[in-house]
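Suppose you are handed only two things: the residues of a chain and a line of SMILES describing adenosine-5'-triphosphate. What would the bound structure be? This form records exactly that question and the answer produced for it, so the two can be stored side by side and reused later without any lookup.

QUESTION INPUTS
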Amino acid sequence: MKLLTLLKDLPKHTLTGSGQVKISHLECDSRRVLPGSCYIALKGTQADGHAFIPEAIRRGACAIVAESPCTQEARDGKVSWVEVNDSRLAVSLMGAAWNGHPSRHMSMIGVTGTNGKTTTAYIAHSLLKQSWLRAGLIGTIAYDNGEEITPSTHTTPGPLELEHLLKEMLENGCRGVAMEVSSHALDQERVAGINFNVGIFTNLTQDHLDYHHTMENYFQAKVKLFEQMAADTKSRRKPVAVINIDDAYGRRLAEMFSGRMAVKTYGSALGADFRMLVHHATARGSEYELEYKGKSYLVRVPLIGKFNMYNSLAALAAVICAGIPVRDAIASLQNIPQVPGRLELFTHPGGAQIFIDYAHTPDALENVCKTLKELCSRRLITVFGCGGNRDKGKRPLMGAVAARLSDACIVTSDNPRSEEPLSIINQITAGMPEGRYAIIPDRARAIATAIDQARLGDIVLIAGKGHENYQELSTGRIDFSDAKEVRRNMRIKDEFTQA
Ligand SMILES: CC(=O)N[C@H]1[C@@H](OP(=O)(O)OP(=O)(O)OC[C@H]2O[C@@H](n3ccc(=O)[nH]c3=O)[C@H](O)[C@@H]2O)O[C@H](CO)[C@@H](O)[C@@H]1O[C@H](C)C(=O)N[C@@H](C)C(=O)N[C@H](CCC(=O)O)C(=O)O
Ligand SMILES: Nc1ncnc2c1ncn2[C@@H]1O[C@H](COP(=O)(O)OP(=O)(O)OP(=O)(O)O)[C@@H](O)[C@H]1O
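ANSWER OUTPUT
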């Protein structure tokens, strides 16, 4: 593809050298540059890609995109140079052009918010698949390109990987895609080349303040998704924002965008376009009445917890906005899969119920503890920790929530990363009343202890790591899975009971 073709959608930029040069690859990592590549220099958190431009030229790059003016070395080597204001925006727009703008040919559902992205995207993906046979999925757990499922590297991958994945989905016959859009991705313009048809906003509560510093910055990162959709002139259908107005930030977002784009609201609040009325929860699922366009529908979902009713409502609203008939979408909800590590139930032969859940924010932990407490006839035993090298402010808040809503807490390690596990644990317990917790830093031992203590009628919640099959320690990653530990300990306890 010619360099000029790749530059067509770029905002103001300055080209030095030929625009006719043929590009063989787009690349942001100098170490992977091949002869004929166009190297795009990004300023990162660990490194500044501009420092690697000479290396990229040495390796044969024939074009450079950078936030700085053309260098003498590039002029001497007849390397084309594109100066831009924002190389992250440039790489996303060029990545979309390189792959033929695949998002313009599929119904794209983007899900953003602090909690519920993975679950909502999973549900929407399943509903799309049941109606349209093939649909793509991009999110924290896995990517499904319509043919093959691979474990994910990011919730929202970098723009070049992302656009390539979308192209594969289109080639594999996907008509729709459900994808998570993280605040990091929005801040770093990873999705700037995507034309979304539907954007879902689930909620906003404290998380990722190590990166965004303030809740307002965090919110503004989410706003970018809807700004992008409101400004989109290339989508085949008018973009729709699907917003939870039971959430205070959701109400603010709906106000900001009504009049600028189509906004459909959901929640139990009066006036919501997709309104959840009477609801009822059981240990195996939930039911609610949906009011939509003056009609009433009974919705049954095989997921527990009020928050999952919101997730299913968001997914329903999104696929209906994408063109799936209401009754088909509601019927398909019966067949959605268990999302790995999201309130995943393991029933112990001795009668206790053990749940693994990915709750790792104060709000998520509060919701999940409240849900389980309602289902519990005896004690709720909560095992949890907090990740290292991430938002520290949430540690005492999570401690306070767990202590308030559980009958017993075991504070353990999550992914301590380079931090001292006991120091993280002490910050968590700073929010807990004395005597309301035990400390067991070794996660495997903490899980074993909780399962050993559990009796008929008890619920054990193992929170924080959900589907993850590793633990990140200061010495590196080790294999670790909450589900494997649970199975192992249930077996041991079972054998012990039978002996
Ligand atoms: C803090 C952060 O988000 N960093 C992301 C960012 O990396 P970066 O630009 O900071 O990378 P860098 O190492 O500073 O390098 C800068 C540039 O120099 C280049 N370079 C570097 C070395 C070299 O020799 N040559 C060279 O060209 C690099 O390729 C890069 O282009 O851009 C990369 C490409 O898009 C991402 O892979 C990377 O994600 C890192 C690995 C990460 O862990 N991100 C997490 C925080 C994240 O994004 N999480 C969210 C989900 C959060 C949630 O909801 O839980 C996600 O969407 O996954
Ligand atoms: N709508 C919701 N509101 C509040 N909490 C929720 C909601 N949905 C899920 N949760 C809680 O948050 C946890 C994470 O859910 P999920 O993985 O769906 O969200 P996420 O936004 O993808 O999270 P992350 O960005 O951290 O991957 C769940 O395990 C559950 O405890």
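WHAT STANDS OUT: The mean pLDDT is 95. The pocket of UAG (ligand 1) is lined by residues 28-31, 42, 44-47, 49, 52, 154-156, 158, 182, 184-185, 188, 190 (CB under 6 Å).
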